[in-house]
Structure formats: C-alpha cells, structure tokens
Amino acid sequence: xxxxxxxxxxxxxxxxxxxxxxxxxxxxxxxxxxxxxxxxxxxxxxxxxxxxxxxxxxxxxxxxxxxxxxxxxxxxxxxxxxxxxxxxxxxxxxxxxxxxxxxxxxxxxxxxxxxxxxxxxxxxxxxxxxxxxxxxxxxxxxxxxxxxxxxxxxxxxxxxxxxxxxxxxxxxxxxxxxxxxxxx
Length: 184
Prior knowledge:
By secondary structure, the chain is of the alpha+beta class. The chain has helices spanning 43-46, 63-73, 120-126, 131-134, 164-177; strands spanning 10-18, 27-29, 31-35, 38-39, 58-62, 86-89, 102-105, 108-115, 141-147, 149-152, 156-161. The chain has a single domain (10-177), classed as M1 Pyruvate Kinase, Domain 3 (Beta Barrel).
C-alpha cells in the first residue's frame, strides 16, 4: 500500500484520544480542545510525553491504517493503543495528501509537518509485540497548530491549502497521462 487514496480532499474524524502522561492508557474522547502547543489534557501539551524532544502538538492516524493492521495481524488498536490523538478517515493509510498541507479538522487548523513513525514504546504500552512493525509507513502524522479550536468525533476534515509541491506533482502526472487534455 502506498498510503494514497482516491480523495476529494475531505474526510471525517473517527475517534479522539488523549493520554495524561507517558505510558498512561489513552482515553477515548468525544471532543477535544486544541490550543497552542497541543490538546488540553494530553501528555505532549503537558510536557510529559515519551519523546518530548521530538514532540508533536497533535498527532493524526488514518482509520484505514488501523483497519489494515487489524486485518493483517489481528491486532486491534481502535481503542487508542496506537498512541495517536485524532483518527481520520478518507485519506488512505499514509495520509499522503495531508502531509505539508493546511488541514481544517473540526474548528482547528493544523499543518501536518512530518510522519510519526511507530516505536518500541508503542508496543510496550499497547502490550502488542509486532505493532510497531505493522504500523510502519502508516504510523501517523505530526501536526503543528495553526489555529486553535474544538474537534469532535464526526467533524469534517478538509484540506484548505494543499502542499504546493504536491500540486506540482499532480499537474505533471495529469500532463504525462494526458488526462488534462481539454480536447482542443
């Protein structure tokens, strides 16, 4: 799987999780409040996350990735043991279209800046050997907060400003395929 999905640039929030400190069980939330620096009540906002030096204000993971891990390995982490804050659906397992774009998630505006690879700590906290390997290339994205706001389960997720580099790639691909031929 390459992480891409046929998408119109929109999706939905499927689940929300916070953990008050490193190693604590993720808590399933119906709503969260995104503020400068992270999510109220989450370990990274509080400065107590496991990888604090490489902290992400907000983390995303694809619902499609959670499904794929369950189908391929039998490991079900839909309860938040993936250790990511926001589960989104509609952008493929790797959420490639979101990387370096500006994304509206509920009332918050986020900018996914890099991939968040899984680590052995995820396996230890989840109690699932093999989880980090199964999440490779689909472990989620780190996001900066552009505009604070509330996020609720069921909220829309929409790309507001695509990554300019990806826009150029898409135009070049259409030209190579001839799919941008106006019929002139």
